[in-house]
Amino acid sequence: MSAVQEAAKTHLGATVKVARSDDDFRLIDQRVAELLVQPLSADSAVQIALLNNRGLQASFHELGIAEAETVQASRLPNPGFSIARMKRGDEREIERGLSFDLGHLIALPLTRRVQSHRFAAVQRSVAMEMLSLAAESRKAFYAAVAAEQTAAYMRDVRTTADAGAELARRMARAGNWTKLQQAREHGFFAEAVLNAARAEAARVSTRERLTRLLGLWGTQTGFSLPERLPDLPEQPQERPDIEQAAMASRLDVQGARQTLEATAGNLGLGRVTRFINVLELGYARNSSNEAPRQTGYEISVEIPLFDWGDARVAKAEAVYMQSVQRAAQTAIEARSEVRQAYQGYRAAYDIARHYRDDIVPTAKRISDENLLRYNGMFIGVFELLADARSQIASVNAAIEAQRDFWLAQADLDMALVGKPSLAGGGPSAAVVSGAAGGPAH
User: Fold this and answer.
1) Using an 8 Å Cβ cutoff, are 130 and 53 in contact?
2) What is the per-residue burial (b if ≥16 Cβ within 10 Å, else e) of 214-246?
3) Which class for 97: exposed (0-12), middle (13-18), buried (19 or more C-beta within 10 A)?
4) What's the rounded Cα separation, in Å, for the pair 314 and 271?
5) Measuring CA to CA, how many Å separate 201 from each of 196, 205, 206?
6) For the CA atoms of the chain, what is the radius of gyration?
7) Distances 104 to 74, 234, 309, 375 between C-alpha atoms, Å
């Protein structure tokens, strides 16, 4: 677990632990309970997932399997012992033999090196799975908080729409408003009810996904979330050397290199054992009740009469070239993914900052001016309500833009250490559609 624990500490500032006994599970449950006392943060959500996700715990035990195979590959082969008893008339012959697999012994250093490379690759694979779970948990946290924030806002909108619809009914009964005007207000109320229901469904869905990733159940599912997303940072990260950083730190690139080295070692192993696929050394001792005792030794070797091992060597060379090409493809994809993640991060920051610094403040200034006009009796209450309706799309889009920034931040962090799950449409797609088509859901 040392490589996985180091990766968790270096890249996440978190700890991981393998649950092997009831005491380990009790310690994990105690730590999870401590983290759930306060409202979740992104970091505490990641820590809970690393401790409590059973799928990750199952992957940790893959390390135990690989380690056992590495130890097994490092051990000397067991000697063989044979005994035979034969009878011919009154003669009794007993044959004893002790053999040792010399071919296995000759290939042992190469086998040990190949298995060590494989074990290192498994370590990196499990570490990357751990980092991927951390990134997904962080993204699920931001999505759940944004859904909570949107649902709360849509409940407020529904309350406002309900008040407007009730006022419209009273005005219509008094004869001060037409049926068309009342129908428009009722239509806004009906749409607000629908949007609030959709927002609530999204809130439940995102919360349940976060619950699954954190491995929570029972009373643990009653965890609390912050009321709103974190504020944007003052300035975005400037990373001109991001490709070089990714090549040095990405675990999938390092894993591809390890696989390539292991395959190269396997090719060497294939060449060494080409003509000594079966080579055994044995000691023989035969005794008979009617003849002197016989002693000696026996060497058996496979005669390369039909199979000279060239097919095995050709296969090893083909597998090696396959690993070379896959390692190169991994590096190309890593460079592209980290560039895409950084561009998505900068675009999401610019969009969220634009909503924060321009669109939302402008909508608020308009609202303040209309409120002054209403107080001066230059406009009526329904004009004021109409202005409030026009702000819904802007506020929803601002929440989504802020959420998309934190999702892009999580993708960027993951792209620097492993393969991220980048969104195909980019962070701005939902924001643009929400702003152009009306209230975003």
Assistant:
1) no
2) bbbeeebeebebeeebeebeeebeebeebbeeb
3) middle
4) 10
5) 9, 6, 9
6) 35
7) 11, 63, 16, 94
Q: From 266, 288, 269, 265, select the one nearest 277 (Cα to Cα).
A: 269
Q: What are phi and psi of 249, to 5 degrees?
A: -115, -15
Structure-token pair, residue 311: 């097919």
Which of 404, 427, 253 is closest to 340 using CA atoms?
427
In sign, the C-alpha dihedral spanning 250, 256, 257, 259 is positive
Cα–Cα distance list, 92 to 81, 89, 95, 293 (Å):
20, 8, 10, 12
CB 287 within 8 A of CB 93: yes
Closest CA to 45 of 254, 224, 256, 285: 224
Q: Cα–Cα distance between 189 and 166 in angstroms, integer?
A: 10
At residue 73, what is the residue type?
A
Is residue 96 helix, strand or coil?
strand
Report phi then psi at 8, rounded to 5: -65, -40
Helix (H, G, I), strand (E, B), or coil: what is residue 285?
Answer: strand
Asked whether 73 and 111 are in contact (CB, 8 A), the reply is yes
pLDDT in tens, the chain (441 residues): 888 888 888 888 889 988 888 898 999 999 999 999 999 999 999 999 999 999 999 989 888 888 888 888 778 778 888 888 787 777 777 887 877 777 677 777 777 777 777 788 788 888 888 999 999 999 999 999 999 999 999 998 888 788 777 877 887 788 777 777 778 777 888 888 998 999 999 999 999 999 999 999 999 999 999 999 999 998 888 888 888 888 888 878 877 777 777 777 666 655 544 444 444 445 555 555 555 665 665 555 555 555 556 677 777 778 778 878 888 888 888 888 899 999 999 999 999 999 999 988 888 887 777 777 766 666 665 666 666 667 788 888 999 999 999 999 999 999 888 888 765 444 333 333 333 334 333
User: Shortest CA distance to 419 belongs to which of 4, 208, 131, 31?
Assistant: 131
13: left (phi over 0), alpha (psi -120 to 50) or beta: left
Q: What are 401's two structure tokens?
A: 């833009």
Q: What is the number of helices (H) and of strands (E) in the chain?
A: 12, 4
End-to-end CA distance of the chain: 43
Other C-beta atoms closer than 10 Å to the C-beta of 352 total 26
